[in-house]
Amino acid sequence: MVLAWRWLMSILFVVVNAVMMGLMGIVFLPWAAFSAKGAQKTCWLYTEWVRFTARLLVGITWEVRGEVPQDECLLVSKHQSFLDILIIFNAVPQPRFIMKRELLWTPVIGLYAWRLGCVPVARGRRGAAIKQMMADVQSGRVTPGQLVIYPQGTRVKPGQYKPFKVGSYALYSQLGQEAVPVATNAGLFWPKGTMLRKPGRAVVEFMPRIAQGVPQKEFLARVEAEVEGGSNALMAEAGFTALPDGKEG
User: Fold this and answer.
1) Any bridge partners for residue 182, and if so which?
2) What DSSP designation does 242 have?
């Protein structure tokens, strides 16, 4: 009975937020089309709406820990769920994401992503995309702020592991900015590949900064240790244990 109720409320939550995303995207489109600030404010309001409905309908709350970056820096983040995107966007002042190039051509969403200064990446061409991003930064097209990269390149389910790619170091070394590892347990409550939402407290934690000038091998080792270790600790705090086959225990 409890599971059936969770499924019902989860479906309602997904539908309500899909409708609201469409409505807000269209209503505020003229503002977003002519103003990067308008695009950011609209998206921030949407994250607040999701925060409210998540608590009301499916029992998900969220918490931000650590020092939230206010300056230009590179956020090297664990990515388990669409929820961790929303939490980061809601928390930092000028977020911009490295994203799949296909999203740029999505009606309405693509325009908002472009106005926010997100960086489209073609799959299999990450090196070329980094060079293009640097050209965008130097030309002034990309608004200064907090650039978010997912070092594993995709969403990773809790308890599973994917190797960390070198792209985060390439950005770190070329941008000349400090890096902030970011951990999360959001995938426990907003899982990948299902509409079912699970009640609990989703956490995004900004870990200690990595100063500029760290060599590649040391940087990647530290990022992986901080992001994976921090995420595992947050998941354990929420009662998650991973079995050897990657399933939840």
Assistant:
1) 77, 206
2) B
Per residue, what are the HEC states of 112-170?
HHHHHCCEEECCCCHHHHHHHHHHHHHHCCCCCCEEEECCCCCCCCCCCCCCCCCHHHH
From first to last of its 249 residues, the chain has per-residue pLDDT tens of: 778 999 999 999 999 999 999 999 999 999 999 999 999 999 999 999 999 999 999 999 999 999 999 999 999 999 999 999 999 999 999 999 988 777 777 777 888 888 888 887 776 555 666 666 666 555 555 567 899 999 998 899 998 989 998 889 988 988 889 999 999 999 999 998 899 999 999 999 999 999 999 999 999 999 999 999 999 999 999 999 765 444 454
- CA 188 vs. chain centroid, Å, equals 15
Please compute Rg for the chain using Cα positions.
18
Instruction: Please give the Cα distance from 123 to 93 (Å, whole number).
Output: 28
